[in-house]
Amino acid sequence: MADSTYPIPGAVEAPSRRWSQAAVLEWLNSWVTTVDHKKLGILYIVYAIFFLLVGGAEAIAIRIQLIQPNMHFLSPQVFNRIFTMHGTTMVFLFGMTYIFGFANYLIPLMIGARDMAFPRLNALSFWLTFFGGILLYYSFIGGGGLYGAGNAPDVMWWAYAPLTERAFSPGHAPDYWALSLIVTGFGTIGASINVISTAFCMRCKGMTLMRLPLLVWVMTVASGLALITITPLTAAQVMLLIDRYLGGHFFDTQAGGSAMIWAHFFWIFGHPEVYVLVLPAFAIANEVIPVFSRKAMFGYPAVVASSVAIAFVSLGVWAHHMFTIGMTSVGNAFFVLSTELVGIPTAIKIFNWLATMWGGKIRFATPMLFCTAFVIQFLLAGLTGIILSIAPWNWQLHNSYFVIAHFHYILVGAIAFCIFGGIYYWYPKVTGRMLSEKLGKWHFWLFVIGFHITFDVMHIPGILGMPRSIYTYEADRGWGTLNMIVSIGGIIQAIAVLIFAWNLISSYFKGKIAGNDPWDAWTLEWSTPSPPPVYNFATDPVVTSRRPLWDLKHPDDPDWHYE
Amino acid sequence: MSTVAVTQAEMEQPWVQPSKGRVAMFCLIIAESAIFTIFVVAYVYNIGKSLYGPTPQQVLEVPIFNSICLLSSSLTIWLAERAIERNQVKNFGLWWAVTFILGAIFLVGTGVEWHKLIYEDGLTISTNLFGTTFYSLVGLHASHVIIGLCMLMVVLLFTITGHVREEHAERIQVLALYWHFVDAVWIVVFTVVYILGR
Ligand code: HEM
Ligand SMILES: [Cu+2]
């Protein structure tokens, strides 16, 4: 049905899986020089998953160190460095790149375009990001401690001044941190500009802004937010480098500079950043949940509006990370209230997902399992966020493991879950083969169980007063058993991720052939063969509603009747 | 049935979307504005916080001539835009060259100012907090002028070799947008550094 309307040039060859030396070089060359949005999307995703594994290994090292009191697995120095690398890797090398992986691969296909607006800028952005990642890990070369980790940055991902000034951090560790993030930051700016221009200027005929697939809308909002949040960080890092290399005094309290201004600049970036990371996760859920509930997404305009509202409000709440810095009570009140305000658009989103599932014919295939767990976990994490944003409670809980539990509940429980769901959902389109459902179920259940063991329990040592960022603790505090449980949960999650990695590789060679539209979905990408040919569409598609494939499959009852 | 008719009519309308060059440049400008905002905030926040001299009152002179040159270059580049739209390539080249010269004068002026500050007043980026914030903010703007001048120069070379025609109007306007932005930022920097800061 779909084929007759959007004819494809010739037959697409079945993906070949055999290798010779010349073929390998040819293959490598085709990836390094590519400007095709699909290949760049895949590169971004592979890069993100690679750093997910690296950051995960660092997390396991941290959890082994904390598994019982007085451990000596890592020295305090190396612990700080691993800790820094974990946070930096996960936020910048994994979090900021999965977004552009999905966006690059999917947006042109979903809006019926042949490529992104600026293919070369696209390649440049990826390689900037790539070299930024290399630069960060290049700091390992030079040896010392756990396979070179003794030279890595040790400033934590928030790099509070003046501890990052020359006087307190001699050597080059903070320079690696700042420079590599400036480079990846430029990559992010380029990629965001590309996403926004593509969504606004490359739509196929009939694809009005109110018919854009929700993924495209939300990715665009996230890219816009990335544009105005990554740049303050870049500016602050330039100031830090001016201080470190040119003898400047921005954060030098001895010369009248201010350490607090770093905290402000960092969190002006840092808070919206968490929404840059989570909005694309919403975007994935917005595509998966309707298809597996067999209903159109409930309240399309509300989904768009609440995404924009979240982006706006998140720009005005940064100082809820700074209640303990000592602000005026007016300042406290302002940031408490503005933070609570985020709850409104967030609640709208949760109602949209629930209403979409309500009364639907839900199929719990692996993508849907992940997205369902996401909705529940996101709700719970929002609640701990509300607790933290009440200033007096924050004074108790700040810099404790409660905070760590809160944000991992979202970063893992929402973002990682949606990414997994998204990969199970689109893998057939990208490779032409299905991921194994059996391994997928193993992955899902082990991961949910490990996740809840780790992060549900982690709130308790936080309430009992265990500070974050400590490399070990005394036995008499009563945190030992809890930490043991947390670490075991972490290891279960790691096993689940390894199953997932195995699934990705083995299904690539042996998975079930997918066909064009294995999930019986509605958006344009499923009208192309799997994997799609280089130019995506032989003839430019024309759409008349939000669910173009539904219209094709159900000519008797098309969507545009209702719009 | 009426819905079908409506959709049919909709199909026949021409399908227009915004120009991607312009959208991209607007995005870049938004990102750049965020960078400038942070530097401006750092400047304003630190006014008068230097523990030792020289102070802005002692050493800064208001660069009136410079600012007039830079701001009038926004006008000349606009005249250039108008000219290329109407396919008057000669006029375009002329206004474009004037823009370039005005920008270059501004840059030279900044150089002269910095030379005086460094060699006569002994103010460098590491002297005190004022030096740090001053050179960072004004330097950030100057580096944008340099990038702009490079791009103006490329277009100028293309014009002289006869490669610029009416069909390039759109790209040239996108570039001009950047130049207007650099000028607009100067108004902010000027106000903050030479008026509020003194
Ligand atoms: C209703 C929504 C939310 C509220 C009210 C909220 C509130 C807060 C507050 C008050 C803190 C500061 C805790 C402290 O350091 O004392 C915090 C920390 C944090 N939150 Fe949230 N949050 C919310 C949603 C999110 C989301 C969606 C994410 C991620 C996608 C997130 C990620 C983080 C992170 C990473 C930190 C810790 C930063 C650090 O200190 O390293 N939060 N949250
Ligand atoms: Cu926050």
Automatic annotation (TrEMBL), chain A:
Residues 21-544 form the Cytochrome oxidase subunit I profile domain. It is a multi-pass membrane protein. Pathway: Energy metabolism; oxidative phosphorylation. One of its GO terms (cellular component) is plasma membrane. GO terms for molecular function: cytochrome-c oxidase activity; heme binding; metal ion binding. It catalyses: 4 Fe(II)-[cytochrome c] + O2 + 8 H(+)(in) = 4 Fe(III)-[cytochrome c] + 2 H2O + 4 H(+)(out). Pfam families: COX1 (PF00115). The chain crosses the membrane at residues 42-62, 82-103, 124-147, 176-202, 214-242, 262-285, 297-321, 333-355, 367-391, 403-427, 439-464, 484-505. Keywords: Cell membrane, Copper, Electron transport, Heme, Iron, Membrane, Metal-binding, Respiratory chain, Translocase, Transmembrane, Transmembrane helix, Transport. Its EC number is 7.1.1.9. It comes from the Bacteria. It is found in: Cell membrane; Membrane. One of its GO terms (biological process) is oxidative phosphorylation. Cytochrome c oxidase is the component of the respiratory chain that catalyzes the reduction of oxygen to water. Subunits 1-3 form the functional core of the enzyme complex. CO I is the catalytic subunit of the enzyme. Electrons originating in cytochrome c are transferred via the copper A center of subunit 2 and heme A of subunit 1 to the bimetallic center formed by heme A3 and copper B. Belongs to the heme-copper respiratory oxidase family. This is Cytochrome c oxidase subunit 1.
Automatic annotation (TrEMBL), chain B:
Residues 22-198 form the Heme-copper oxidase subunit III family profile domain. It holds the Pfam family COX3. The keyword Membrane applies. It is found in: Cell membrane. Keywords: Cell membrane, Membrane, Transmembrane, Transmembrane helix. The keyword Cell membrane applies. InterPro entries: Cyt_c/ubiquinol_Oxase_su3, Cyt_c_oxidase-like_su3, Cyt_c_oxidase_su3-like_sf, Cyt_c_oxidase_su3_a-hlx. The chain crosses the membrane at residues 23-44, 64-80, 92-114, 134-160, 172-196. It is a multi-pass membrane protein. Signal peptide: none annotated. One of its GO terms (molecular function) is cytochrome-c oxidase activity. Its main location: membrane. GO terms for biological process: aerobic electron transport chain. Belongs to the cytochrome c oxidase subunit 3 family. This is Heme-copper oxidase subunit III. It comes from Alloacidobacterium dinghuense. The lineage of its organism: Bacteria, Pseudomonadati, Acidobacteriota, Terriglobia, Terriglobales.
